[in-house]
Amino acid sequence: MQNDSTRSPLSVAGIQFLHEGEPGIPLPRWITPTWRGSRVVDEPIRVFHAVGDTSTEGLQPVISTELPHGDYYVDDERKMAIRARIAGPPVDRPQLLRTTASGFSYTIRYASAEDALRGQWGWHRTIFMFALPMRRRGLSVHSTGFILPGRRGVVCPGVSGAGKSTLAKLLLAASPSELTVLGDDRIAVTAEPEGLHLWGTPWHSSAGAAVADDAPCSAMVFVARGDGARITRLAPREAMTRLIRTVAIPFWDPEGTEFALSLIDQMVTTLPCFEFAYAPTNGAIVRLVDELSAAISTRN
Amino acid sequence: MARFVRSADVVARRIAGELVLVPIATRTDDAERRTANFYVLNGTGEFLWDRLASPADIDALVSAVTQHFAISAGEALGDVERFLAELADCGAIDTVERT
Fold first, then answer.
1. Closest to B25 (Cβ–Cβ): which among A62, A235, A241?
2. Measured between CA atoms, how close is A146 to chain B, in angstroms?
3. pTM given for the model
4. Whose CA is closest to A73, among B25, B92, B29, B9?
């Protein structure tokens, strides 16, 4: 699946970020230092950087969230805008993201040129996670993800504190042969003609997992705390109520939301879904990998 | 008496056989209103959602639930009031004053 000739440190899940800016504005050259970039298979996301008005005059407020997302607005065409206040030092500075073409083109305005490289890790993540459904390509899932031997991708969604990074750390420590941990915080799931596909992203958590690899998505696993290592099959309805909490839904846009829900439906009705209740030991992880491999093989 | 009707600012979609509502964000006057909210409707909820395709008042909804589910008017009133309060809170239904 790999084609290094098209890789870029600014490409994620097949989409390359292309940056342009006013003269004198420094432009981002990478997202995460260790991230070498995915192969490129889709139209780029274009981001224009400019110094200018960061006020929200004329925009309609939608919702306030904690940084790095900021306060959400829509313009009179219902295109999304976000005003974030990037923490100092030396001082907190507002930045304003405006949508030019949903899913494809955005502008970020700064109070001054020296602010332009601040906050880019979060900006890239926010732009990417909503660009995927807005271009009807996929979803960003709050999730750990890994690839089993045989190039079979497994997505493990969970809200903050669910144990995503713990699972990733144990998978990295156990390092069963030919197993790749794609990420421990954000995983991209795309709808491809041949089925659902899993991609690592640069946005990692405490396990530091951010691998630019991808594979067909073969299973979904929700982790839970337990005594031993018990893996049980989940009904699609149960999987849906857990998955929907972890997906970035473009909540200001009915068509984008409709697409996100349709992909959630595809995920829970076509993937085998499991709960893995475990105590964090290497033995539990080996059992997870063995049982998942067997379950997927049986299904295929 | 006020009547209630589905809001245009909600996406309703069946996922894994269940009817799921996701309100579309349009305002932030309520700080507790989190638009990533979703609602999975139970049998009574789906029944009421069907009837809210056109404006309906509480008496009509209670009467319909009482007949369809063979429960008392008191039970039905509680179910209907809770359902309407939750959906109004998240912006999934609008209130229409009778003229």
1. A62
2. 25
3. 0.92
4. B25
